[in-house]
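Annotated sample (chain length 185).
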Amino acid sequence: MHAAKAAADAGRVSQEAFDELRQQFNAIQVRAVEAFGEKTLRDAFQSLNAEAYRPPMPEEFEKPKPMAHVPARTNAEPERLAWARTLVDGIRDQALAAGWTMESLYFCEGYECRPHVAGCGLVCYIGAAERIGEVARQSIEVIGPAPKEIQTRFYNPDVAQPWVRRIETIGSDSVRLCPCQCSGP
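Output written by the structure step:
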């Protein structure tokens, strides 16, 4: 209450807030006098060393708690790549027969450093919980985990795709056809 009074006198606490705090303190003080007696409270106040005072705490808070074991962070990428290689091994013969190359299925050199570079094989794009669906000449279907099972396709880089238009070279000029077959870029 002495600190609250000093704060109110300095203007850091409004007078209304101090009056409300004083009423609450007075109610607690009346209950303490009824329970312990005025002399006991006065003796306790005079013997109090505010610097050394520690509020009472339950025993479990006093003891240092043992640290829970936290597993070391591991790199899941080698495990994911091993899973992906296992899946690709299962469809390798079918994919090779459809026109895929070993490189387009397995190549992943430098993938960890730059994951979205051209030339990476199918194993780089299969997630840990995914599986392989349809295998065709133009693409291989990758199916995501349940419950949504989102289907994406990994396209064969060595096969012409219907949405890609080739640039024809005529002498030193090049002609590029846009999807609508106009002569514009």
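Annotation: Strands lie at 131-135, 139-143, 151-155, 168-170, 173-175.
Annotation: The longest helix spans residues 15-36.
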